[in-house]
Amino acid sequence: MTEQATVDAGSSGSRERGRFRSLLSGAAGHNLGLVAALLLLCVVGAVTGGDRFMNIGNLVTILSLASVFGVLAVGMTFVITSGGIDLSVGSVMGLATVWATTWATQNMAENSHWIVIVFTALVVGTAAGLINGVIIAYGKVVPFIATLAMLAGARGLAELISGRQTQRVENAAFIEFFRLEPLGVPILVWIFAVVAVAGWFLLNRTTFGRRTVAIGGNAEAARLAGIKVRRHMVYIYGLAGLAAGIAGVMMLARTTAGTSTHGMLYELEAIAMVVVGGTLLAGGRGTIMGTVIGVLIFTLLTNIFTLNNMSSSAQLVAKGAIIVVAVLLQQRFAGRSRST
């Protein structure tokens, strides 16, 4: 009887250890690791940057910058989870800022309401995303090539519209609204928070999110299960374009100017943040929570580098190394989960 109890206790302990290891190797364990890395970076920043890092103004700057990247990264999370990629979001964001600050748009805003500027940016971003989706889903063009073409096309169109000149936001009400700080927090941070919560709910609590994950895991199986894969892909890229439009509005709020250079290489930053956050580059698994932490890690890292006068070249090398390590860890965990 005693031996049987010992065996049962041993098997029970073994199951508990198995559950614990499974938890740590899953999304929860990955998020815990990201939180630990974020806290470590905060310690490093406090030690190396001192009062300059811990200054409230610096922390607000970090959050404001993270907000713009974060909105792009939330949209990118859906694209990568579906097994795709979008190299055009930075250029689309730049195009949205230019189109929203043309004389015609601002004149309409002056005669009606500043919301016209916001609406224009959102429409431009969403339209560009939908075009990407149609080309990929119905034209059967590889996402890398289709969005690379949009990257070049959107940037070129922005230069043509603006004449390569910076266009100032003239609407005082627009500028005044986006300078508000409800509860002492910049409104850009609130926008990012709302987008992140909405993205989390959409990915984890709706049919749209489940279909996105299913398509990323196996598009053919998803099609056989009754999911309209091509139509859903159009929606996903439209969502990424909408996120780029929102980010464009936020960039206008930060800089009070629209220019074709806005968003340069932002797509690479967004992809890196999503991958570091734990979304599988091969598709089939995505995490908005991980993406948010990944955004904060990259923005915090950039701030620490800047405070310590590290050159931009060295910063790129460090970020590249982080991306490689993140992808290698993803492959290792993915292989382990397939073998169990």
Q: What structural class do helix, strand and pairing data support?
A: mainly alpha
Distance, first to last CA: 33 Å
Q: What's the domain count?
A: 1
| CATH topology-level fold name | ABC transporter involved in vitamin B12 uptake, BtuC
- According to CATH, what is the class? Mainly Alpha
Would you list the SSEs in sequence order as H and E? HHHHHHHHEHHHHHEHHH
Strand count, sense and barrel status of the largest sheet are:
2 strands, antiparallel
Structure at a glance:
This protein is mostly helical. It has helices at 2-25, 27-49, 51-54, 56-81, 89-99, 103-111, 115-137, 143-162, 172-178, 187-205, 207-217, 219-224, 229-255, 266-276, 288-307, 312-339, and strands at 167-168, 257-258. It is built from 16 helices and 2 strands.
Record the SSE blueprint.
Blueprint: H1 2-25, H2 27-49, H3 51-54, H4 56-81, H5 89-99, H6 103-111, H7 115-137, H8 143-162, E1 167-168, H9 172-178, H10 187-205, H11 207-217, H12 219-224, H13 229-255, E2 257-258, H14 266-276, H15 288-307, H16 312-339
Antiparallel strand pairs: 1-2
Helix pairs in contact: 2-15, 4-10, 4-11, 4-13, 4-14, 4-15, 5-7, 5-8, 5-13, 6-7, 7-8, 7-13, 10-11, 11-13, 14-15
